[in-house]
Amino acid sequence: MAVASTNSAVKSASAFRFASLIEAAKTRFARYRLYRQTVNELSELSDRELADLGLHRSMIRRLAMQAAEEQYAR
């Protein structure tokens, strides 16, 4: 009986790890999609529009990464 309960506990633990791995991948993908969306939207703005927002074109990637990390903070 001890063998059966130990075996099911190992299966349960590996299922939990697999579920966590899938959840982490989903979160990573959602973070990447938000990053790409932010970069694309800000890149479409003219230099004048960016300046009105107090931004420079060189800041786009950093701001997009920061927005994605804040949205999906662990």
Sequence-ordered SSE layout with sheet pairings:
Layout: H1 2-43, H2 47-52, H3 60-71
Structural description of this entry:
The two termini are about 40 Å apart. The model has no long low-confidence stretch (mean pLDDT about 90). The chain is an all-alpha fold. It has a domain at about 25-74. It has 3 helices and no strands. The longest helix is centred in the N-terminal third of the chain and has 42 residues, at about 1-45. InterPro entries: YjiS-like (IPR009506).
Largest sheet: none
Strand content: under 5%
Number of strands: 0
Query: Considering DSSP H and I runs of 4 or more, what fraction of the residues is helical?
Result: over 70%
Q: SSE order in H/E notation?
A: HHH
End-to-end separation: 40 Å
Pairing-aware structural class of the strands and helices?
mainly alpha
The residue ranges in which pLDDT falls below 50 over 5 or more consecutive positions are none
InterPro entries: YjiS-like
Domain YjiS-like: 28-61
Features:
74 residues, mainly alpha, rod-shaped
Short description:
It holds the Pfam family YjiS-like. It is built from three helices and no strands.
